[in-house]
Amino acid sequence: MMPTCPLCASADTAFYHRDAWRDYHRCERCTLVFVPPTFRLAPEEERAVYDQHRNSPDDPGYRRFLARLFEPLHARLEQGARGLDFGAGPGPTLSVMFEEAGHPMAIYDPFYAPDPSVLEHTYDFITATEVAEHLFSPGKELARLVGRLRPGGWLGLMTKRVTDHAAFTRWHYILDPTHVSFFSESTFRWLANEHDMSVEFPAGDVVLLQRRWRSASVKASDGF
Fold first, then answer.
1. Which of these, 9, 38, 126, 131, could form a disulfide with 87 (CB 3.0-4.6 Å)?
2. Number of domains forming the structure of the chain
3. 22-66 residue pLDDT tens
4. Which CATH number fits the domain that encloses residue 166?
């Protein structure tokens, strides 16, 4: 029996690839490539991998890396727009970059900043850098983030994209045991259509989704 897609919940999935230690399946509906639940790490194993990350706002190289998302998103924001950095990790940096540019920021991370109250507010923009590929339940998590955006708000994601099957089988990105969800352009186009959003691809690993203004209205006072 094929596993259900964790993004769109379709049962129309098919085997896609097998390497030395796990399987990958592809959804025929939204084209997400994903690792079935049986191959996922336990929370303590996942945390141990993340604890090895040494990211910091004092690292110019890391700032240059994040600038691939920061620059195109910042160019689309109004002055003083409020944001949330989701999955900020052990060394929050993108939030610092936006704060330096005049944007009040909240952060959330299930391991390092697990404050659920920030997920009760709404925001002008939400970022998630190198997060989408780690999500066990991307459909649920991304829908939650979209629901926290005000009309006209932006969701900015950084994650490397699937191009074709041959490249996938040689891809270093799948060697990280915490990477379990792999998106392509068509996956993001499906996501945009599902949530009534526009979508742009400013770089090979960057996607910007904007909630349309005609979406359900949100009280302007619902901030943080």
1. 131
2. 1
3. 999 999 999 999 999 999 999 999 999 998 877 889 899 999 999
4. 3.40.50.150
